[in-house]
Amino acid sequence: MAFVLDWQKRLGYKTDPFVDLPQGKTADFFVDREAERAALNLFVVKQSRFGLLQGSQSSGKTTLLRWVEEQLRGGQVRALLLDGSVGYDAFLDATISATLNPLEKRLLKPQAKVVKAAREDFLIHRIADKQFIILVDNAQGLEKESKALLKRILASCAGAQLIFAVERALKEHEEYGEDALGLTLEEMDNDALIALLRQRIALVGGDGTYPFDEEACKRLIATSKRNPRKLLVLAREQAIEISVKGPPPRRASKTAPSEKAVRIGKATKAKGHGDDQEETDELQSGKRRWLSFRFVKDEDDPVIRLAGDEEQEEKQAGAVAKDAEHAKGGGRTRKAADRPRKEPEAGASEVEDILQFIMEEIEANEKRKQR
Fold this sequence. Notes:
- It is a single chain.
- With 371 residues, the protein is an alpha/beta fold.
- It starts with 6 loop residues before the first helix and ends with a helix.
- It folds into three domains: 7-23 and 188-284, no CATH class; 33-184, Rossmann fold, CATH 3.40.50.300; 294-370, no CATH class.
- The chain has helices at residues 7-10, 34-45, 61-72, 88-99, 102-108, 119-127, 144-156, 190-203, 214-224, 228-245, 259-270, 277-284, 309-328, 348-370, and strands at residues 50-54, 78-83, 132-137, 160-166, 183-184, 294-296, 305-307.
- Strand 3 (132-137), helix 7 (144-156) and strand 4 (160-166) form a beta-alpha-beta unit.
């Protein structure tokens, strides 16, 4: 018997599919909750003020809040995802940090210049005229001062929206206003939970629910008592045990999905999640595409823009043409794998965020000058 360390590789996985909060797009890991996501969408669009997202522990409240934050990222409505289980000072710091742009977070740090007693006023001043939604996970753990801060934000900021993720509604929640969301997460059935396993495994290059057959999946679901988080923990433990003892033949994992599982899979594919597989794999493997930036301004176009992907594509097309010319002269055309590739430097994404912010500020300034 060989000693096993990389259990994922032995099962054909690129990485661990059973982690609680996986990397990549949260939408890729949904297999259901269509009605709940639509309700959250309507809450934001209607600019409702306060809402409750109820559900038992590990029912998926955190994942839904992460989905809302990701969907609104970079849009006209800002989403602030916060943890209500931390103390007031940490909660206030996290709220302020969520309002900062990349340049302020990395370089300017305006919050550091504010005395402790004036931090709430600083926060209110920054967000008073903006449209944003505060998503509070574990809201049942909010301290008295944190609750007072949120009430002050709702009273002072006309564009503020607030959603609490809680296990159950309490009388004190009425102090924030009417519950315009009224959303309770129901228990997921067997088909949805099997589809959850199938989706997780597929995203890391696995096959169906391998190494679990249909009966094994049902046993896992029964043992977890339909708790998605516990199901993933149990699946991980058993997958490791199976990989060490010797994984079963691949054909054993090819179970026929139920009608609902097929419907869920089709809905996921229709949303374009399959198209994102390459990007998800790239993020999980730690690889990142090299980006170069240059500010350009055409004579006929007064708006400054950021040159990046188009310039890279032109360079690549030029390299291909050069290789073709070289081949005509009797030389060997280089394959893409033969060409030297410049590795990305650390912190490239942070630089990209800051440069994008600077570009937007310059463009806005140019427009103001033209008025």
